[in-house]
Amino acid sequence: MRAMPQTCDIFCAVVDNYGDIGVCWRLARQLAHEHEVQVRLWVDDLASFAKLCPEVNPVLERQYCREVEVWHWAGTFPEVQPAELVIGAFACNLPERYVAAMAQQSREPVWLNLEYLSAEEWVESHHKLPSPHPRLPLTKYFFFPGFTAKTGGLLLERDLLARRDAFLADPVQQQAYWRNLGVAPERAEGEMRVSLFSYENGNIEALLQAWVQGALPVVCCVPEGRVLPQVAAFFGQQGAAPGACWQRGNLRVHVLPFVEQERYDPLLWACDTNFVRGEDSCVRAQWAGKPFVWHIYPQHDGVHMQKLQALAARYGQGLPAAAAQANSAMWQAWNGEGTVAVAWGAFAAQRLELQAHAGVWAQGLAQNNLALNLLDFFNEVGRIRAFEI
Ligand code: TRH
């Protein structure tokens, strides 16, 4: 029989930005809603969490939010019964008291470290590796998300692609969506609509200038965030608030609010190309089935460029060579290696190929669902342990 965990603790230490809590919150909801697991989410930064889920009250120690029990992970850790499935996200250290309690359980909890996403090849050989605790009778397993069947796959809600397709098939819904954002739904001839979510970027001026001077009109939607001051400065503004709109040449920019997590997806569906960053928005852009440009989270040692190239190479498989090259060159230029204006020209010229490929790519990845894989692995570990006894 297939064993399912009834309880799950997810531990999230927010390093910076929104990706850590973005992934944990998505996983927590999915386990609770789609698999009826009782989930406790331990988060050390409720203010960041509240940006993704405004229902969260940042001053409460404990609260329920969308069927997930949310705890502020701060100060002395309370005495709690450990869950059957324990997930430490992104190598965060679990509280010692909690780990000690895990070792006291008559049935050892299945303990996973959910790793950052990478398309690099080494991920396959590291996925599911055990790491015995140095002192206690506990084993932690490394669980790697990824793009191949030998990895943990990607987070994907059961109904996401159906909701996307319904949205894309319904012009009325799309028009209402744009109006609600304060952006005219009507498009100029040949117009390209892009969303722009990125870190501060040394190439932003060059990109905006390329759009200003480009042959086709570009409407660019910028959610509030780290790149916005640079965009505002390009238009001679000191700062900007949602609702601001600037036009120069063939470029119109709309400043959007940072919306709660579920409301970000329709923006990606509604645009023709999405600039995304980090990890979670990059995955959501792939589910959108639209061409995307990735601003990878920069690491001091520069290893992020290998990670960028690894995904560009995988993504390029199945694309005609010129389109794969244009895609890869645009990602590299946006991350500081290359000339953005030139790269954008080539990328835009390949937009039909890139569009066709993006849909096929999303469909291909959809079979490898991280939450399902995680539950299968829970089951697998349980079977191995039963055999050992
Ligand atoms: O915020 P990020 O830069 O997070 C990063 C990465 O996860 C990186 O790998 C990690 O090391 C670093 O944090 C610490 O980008 P990411 O991963 O795309 O997360 C952004 C989240 O914000 C994602 O869940 C989507 C969400 N979001 C909204 O909810 N509303 C919005 O309006 C927008 C623009 C994003």
CATH superfamily of the largest domain: Glycogen Phosphorylase B
* Count of DSSP-assigned helices: 15
State the end-to-end distance: 18 Å
The strands making up the biggest β-sheet line up spatially as: 3-4-2-1-5-6-8-7
Q: Which structural class matches the secondary elements?
A: alpha/beta
Low-confidence segments, ≥5 residues, pLDDT <50? none
Helix content: 40-55%
Q: Could you say how many structural domains there are in total?
A: 2
What is bound: which ligands? Answer: 2'-deoxy-thymidine-beta-L-rhamnose
Question: Class of the largest domain, according to the CATH hierarchy?
Answer: Alpha Beta
Kindly report the average pLDDT value.
96
The CATH architecture term of the largest domain is 3-Layer(aba) Sandwich
Q: Which series of helices and strands comes N to C?
A: EHEHEEEHEHEEHHEHEHEEHEHEHHHHH
**Main sheet, how many strands, which sense, barrel?**
8 strands, mixed
Number of strands: 14
Rg value? 22 Å
- Tell the overall outline: globular
Fraction in beta strands: 15-25%
CATH topology name of the largest domain, in short, is Rossmann fold
Question: If you had to describe this structure to a student in words, what would you say it looks like?
Answer:
The protein is of the alpha/beta class and 389 residues long. It folds into 2 domains: 7-155 and 368-388; 160-365, Rossmann fold, CATH 3.40.50.2000. It is built from 15 helices and 14 strands. Helix 12 packs antiparallel against helix 13. The structure holds 2'-deoxy-thymidine-beta-L-rhamnose. 2'-deoxy-thymidine-beta-L-rhamnose (TRH) is lined by residues 15-20, 22, 52, 116, 197, 223, 258-261, 264, 277-281, 297.
